[in-house]
Design a protein that fits this description.
The chain has 102 residues and is an all-alpha fold. It contains four helices and no strands. Helices cover 38% and strands 0% of the residues. The two termini are 29 Å apart.
Length: 102
């Protein structure tokens, strides 16, 4: 979500991560690589508010929603990758808005 793997250079972050996890075999070593470059890991409401479907935040929110059993607001269908056909087409063209908590 933070664009870590979209940079170009002589040694890409993906290459560094593969070397690290192959060598150390611990998730902590991989997290240490992230911490050197990513300022914060927490997703804040402003990261999601108005996020277009092309946003990595939208995709991550979609994955989390699916894992929690969310349903499509327009069709009532579960967000599930095994559902196919026109009646199961998901409406992903809308922006994410922060819900108002009252």
């Amino acid at each position: 979500m933070w664009g870590r793997y979209t940079r170009r250079g002589t040694s890409s972050p993906l290459e560094q991560d593969v070397v690290t996890i192959t060598r150390d075999k611990t998730p902590e070593s991989l997290i240490h690589n992230f911490e050197r470059e990513v300022r914060y890991f927490d997703v804040k409401p402003e990261n999601l508010e108005g996020a277009p479907v092309t946003s990595p935040f939208f995709n991550m929110a979609f994955i989390v929603a699916k894992s929690k059993g969310a349903v499509d607001w327009f069709t009532g269908n579960n967000l599930h990758t095994k559902l196919v056909g026109q009646s199961y087409r998901l409406h992903k063209h809308h922006k994410i808005y922060r819900p108002q908590i009252r």
